[in-house]
Design brief:
Helix content is 58%, strand content 17%. It is an alpha+beta fold and 414 residues long. It has 2 domains: 182 residues, no CATH class; 209 residues, no CATH class. β6 and β7 form a beta hairpin. α2 runs antiparallel to α10 and α2 runs antiparallel to α13. The longest helix has 44 residues. It is elongated and about 105 Å long.
Length: 414
Amino acid sequence: MKRLYLFFADTTQLALQSIFAHKLRAFLTLIGIIIGVASVVVVGASISGFNSYVLTTVSKILGVNHFMIARMAHDGERSEEEWERANKRNKQLYVSDYEWIAEHCKSCQEVGAQANSRTNLKHEGRETFGTGVFGVTANMVEIEAKTIAEGRFLAPHEVEHAALVCVLGGEVKEKLFPGRNAIGQTLKINNAPMVVIGVEEMRGPFMGESIDNHIYIPLTTFGKYFNRRQGLQIHGKSSNPEIFAVAIEEARMVLRNRHKLIGNEDDDFGLVNTDALNNQVDKFTSMIALVVTPITLLSLIVGGIVVMNIMLVSVTERTFEIGLRKAVGAKKRQILMQFMIESSLMTAVGGVFGLLLAAGIAWAVSITTPIPMTITAGYILLALVVSGGIGMIAGIYPAYKASRLDPIVALSKN
């Protein structure tokens, strides 16, 4: 064991001496490895960060343990034929459907409803365009885990009596009431004077689109000033993740019973839940990783080819040294191991520098964009293993060539 340790220690020392004797050449050789490792790690960090960003934003928008039933809600992909069938089959959902599910779904902690429209808002010379108007039940604040930054959300009695009150999204507040308190102010919405009672916390853009340009009003008020017969979205929430699937299935069966669907008849409504959306995001980012990661690994292969060329040059330059070592008793495997260790060390050092470069890029992206760059251990391990492996593979042929040199011929070339 001691002899083996001394052999590797001596071989590594010789390899390091050779690398440091040609620092500039070694660095230029490693640029391909550095860029390749940085590319793999940055791509992995981008994919992981994008996944976290989307899931976090979806959680901000929809909350957790949350499902939605609507006429055309769905998760996953649908063919054109499926869309056409659903469009002909599915029915609008109304307040009676919401009340039925709320009464009969025992596994649901909360059941709420929402109706959507859009309008332009004007106030004291300021204006917003395409602002979402959400008519909601009071418990939507719990179902979607909304955060109210100022004031409060709608109260049950305000929904019951169609009160003229509203809660502003963060962007609407900033545009119509910049730098001042909006609570207690009156805002005309579809010609109805509504009192601002709350402001939702700003959630920031999602995929370049604002998710704060909206207002909430009582569902009953929405019916009076917008479209009373407009279809609803029915939202539900379980008390904990363990019974979430049970709550979804119970809500589904309750609505099927109300619509008198039997046997294998398809649902005449759509259902989607946050878990399904999260799974779709995971699937999407996994597909991206599957396609992009092998492409970035190509840069490491190119770097390995450069390392092989430089190692061949090194063998040619050190012919006399190799001949001398073989003349004094060095065996083929020792020469072979020396050059393989040298190429592996070079690429391993390149891998470390590549990781440092990737960390710098990830930090810069994280502070300049809303997407967090998450450098995962898996991609670090992948980059280092592949770079070290490429170094070893790249060193095989030069090392083999060096180990096969005839010491007499090698010494004669001095």
